[in-house]
User: Which sequence fits this backbone?
């Protein structure tokens, strides 16, 4: 059974993030999309970074980018979702992170204090496809960009697919006994 993007509670927005990493250039691209409980896009963006150490740093930067974007857009109740289990676990822990990405984890935790309600959760790549698509196109775009109430053209189809799937009943519910 395939997974699908699930909307947040009606009082919150869901902020999905992902990252792409070009190891030989030490560059990364972070993609983020903010959607409401109806699956409507409230904003999206892509940010390019230089001098990034590794894929873990890339994902941490993407998470930081996601909550910074949500804060800047004025959202106060957010669910932050990405497909990096490592980042999700590190951000959820209350112990000091002494790893190479500890400084990013600390910054994410500090930024989280700006929200009335914030939670971090892991999802799989398939449920995070819009953010993944946006992150992947960052190198092609060549610069950081933001979109208000829309996604970039390359991500329109996967966004519409998510909205269509969220309106469908779960397979388990549609099986007649």
Assistant:
């Amino acid at each position: 059974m395939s997974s699908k993007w699930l909307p947040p509670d009606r009082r919150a927005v869901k902020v999905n993030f992902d990252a792409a990493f070009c190891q030989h250039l030490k560059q990364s691209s972070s993609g983020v999309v903010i959607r409401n409980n109806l699956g409507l896009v409230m904003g999206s963006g892509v940010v390019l970074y230089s001098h990034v150490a590794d894929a873990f740093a890339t994902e941490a930067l993407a998470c930081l980018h996601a909550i910074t974007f949500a804060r800047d857009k004025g959202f106060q109740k957010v669910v932050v979702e990405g497909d990096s289990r490592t980042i999700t676990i590190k951000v959820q822990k209350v112990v000091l992170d002494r790893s190479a990405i500890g400084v990013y984890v600390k910054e994410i935790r500090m930024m989280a204090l700006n929200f009335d309600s914030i939670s971090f959760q892991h999802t799989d790549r398939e449920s995070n496809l819009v953010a993944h698509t946006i992150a992947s196109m960052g190198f092609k775009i060549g610069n950081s960009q933001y979109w208000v109430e829309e996604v970039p053209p390359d991500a329109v189809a996967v966004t519409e697919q998510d909205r269509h799937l969220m309106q469908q009943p779960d397979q388990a519910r549609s099986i007649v006994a």
